[in-house]
Amino acid sequence: MTGPVRIFMVEDHGPDVFLVRKALHDNQVEFHLTRFEDGEQAVNALLKLAEIPHLFILDLNVPKIDGLELLRRIRKNPAMAAVPIAVLTSSRTAQDRLEALALGANRFITKPTDLPSFVRIVGGSIKELLDLPQGPSAQHA
Amino acid sequence: MITTAQEPEAETNLPADSSYKAKILLVDDNPGNLLGLEAVLESPDHELVKANSGIEALRFLLNDDFAAILLDVKMPEMDGFETASLIRARKRSQHTPILFLTAFKSDEQLFRGYDLGAVDFLFKPIVPEVLQSKVAVFVQLSRNAELLKRQADVLQRAEQKFRMFLEAAPESEVFMGPDGRISLVNSRTESLFQLKRDQLIGEPLTRLVPGWTNQSPSPFQGQLSGIRADGSSFPVDITSSSLHTAEGIVTIHAIRDVTDRKRAEEEIRQLNSRLEQKVIERTAALTRSNDELRQFAYVVSHDLKEPLRTVATFSQLLEERLGSDFDAEAKEFLGYILGGVKRMSDLIDDLLAYTSLDAGESRFKPVDLNLVLKEASFNLLATIQETGAVVASDPLPEIMGDRVQLVQVMQNLIGNSIKYRSNEIPRIHVRAEWQSNELVVAVRDNGIGIDPAYSEGVFKLFKRLHTREEYSGNGVGLAICRKIVQRHGGRIWVESNVGQGATFYFTIAAGRASSAAEGI
Known about the structure:
The complex is a heterodimer of chains A (141) and B (520).
Chain A: E1 5-10, H1 14-26, E2 31-36, H2 39-47, E3 55-58, H3 67-76, E4 85-89, H4 94-102, E5 107-110, H5 115-129
Parallel strand pairs in A: 1-2, 1-3, 3-4, 4-5
Helix pairs in contact in A: 1-5
Chain B: H1 2-6, E1 22-27, H2 31-41, E2 46-51, H3 54-63, E3 68-72, H4 80-89, E4 98-102, H5 107-115, E5 118-123, H6 128-168, E6 172-176, E7 182-185, H7 187-193, H8 197-200, E8 220-227, E9 233-245, E10 248-257, H9 259-322, H10 328-359, E11 365-368, H11 369-379, H12 381-387, E12 390-393, E13 398-401, H13 403-419, E14 427-435, E15 438-445, H14 477-487, E16 492-496, E17 502-509
Parallel strand pairs in B: 1-2, 1-3, 3-4, 4-5, 12-14
Antiparallel strand pairs in B: 6-7, 6-10, 8-9, 9-10, 11-13, 14-15, 15-17, 16-17
Helix pairs in contact in B: 3-4, 9-10, 10-14, 11-13, 13-14
């Protein structure tokens, strides 16, 4: 992969976008992140998409069109059927996990509640999904 | 007739009590003749009444009935024929047999006598045996007549009694003759169907009960509809039984108006269905509130913890960015922020666990308490290793329960024992024994103990006995234990004194857990 990875992130909670950027940065990932505040924005953008992203990061509980529905639509689009998707949510219910994975999510990450874990787990998982070499800080992801 | 009556076996037809004694009236103007007749006819079987003239004879006949009258033809003033004609004129005596006594055997006399209703003639001189045998015949006839009369009386009384009972019967009684037509009804039938007796006699039963189809003589019982004269119908209970009589099969139908009973049954049915409806509605409401509770739990877990996570991560971010500028005090403050967030987060988790105990279904299965203890100890491994606590137990039995919940109870109790330890190494011992139909489990420790004044209060939600500086904890753990134990049909309590350790007891009902475990 050459150049920065293109990441589409659907997240209504600003601070978490900041934390994801920090996690990517701290894990030495070169990235270009586009953020959508709700599911509808994301769907509209995907419809007139010029370039297909290398990775989706989806929160489940977002306004208008929720994360699971987004997952379904992305996976139905042949052009994006193989793009890795990480669900990043504060939900820890087995039900959500099962449903997300069944709909084609590659990872289901419950947002860690402290900063070091967030950086390590989220950053490490994304690198794995993008098939990037793991740094020493992500060995236990 | 006469010869038949003379047959000896006819005697057996006499009434057994023979209070009845036949009377023979002897009529002759000659006292000597009367004495002669009396001498010949004297017998315990009958009574002889003597009259000296036709007038006297008639006087006796006024008040009495006689089996036979022996009448002398030739008497002064009023002769035998004249007397006989007067006897015949009276209704009471018009059939009483008369035997004329005469010395003359003239055809004229015979014709006149027979014309007057004589039964026989006896010619003087009287032959005693002939007289005796003739009188015996009349006595026998009289007795038979009396017997018939008595039997008729008995029959009439029985009939009257039967009619009385029939009329007094609380239900409609309908008799059906061998021709399948109504032969007899009681007055209840008239009032019930609003029809007169004469409108019913000779009618088929279907006139009253159109649905009646049973033709067999076997007993029948069922519910059909009765129909009144005005065409209105009403529910009836009908019971039929048949009787084989000389005339053929008579069927008796007892018909009872069950309108009131039907109405009561209908009311009960409606009440039941209303009750059922209510139960369904309540169950639906409970299910809804359970669902809402689950929904609420989800919202709590997601939305309440979200801000906490932000507080925690960005406090840490601040420390990362400004860490070098932080003095000891600022770092202490940061510790307070993170500690507060951690406590709040744990509290939310515990409250969730507490409320979801009610919402979840119970999964009662055989559970080995030894494994429960092992699992609880494993969950507490870090704390146990850290404090060097010793957890031991007697062999524990298997019970019916929810394994996950029981592990929670054991873990909370042992965790408490370690948390509230004294200066000694924590030693915890678990044992259990059956007492009647419940298992009593005891968890004993050598910790700081509990003031007996608080032995009830510790199980209440949010009840804490110590400041946070002394011991961490949020006052939910024992409340969870109590709720789980209650769901297993048991109780929980503590026996302790300050400084002497504490023993927590809880019971589990044997076999299937009680209704407390049904999840509502």
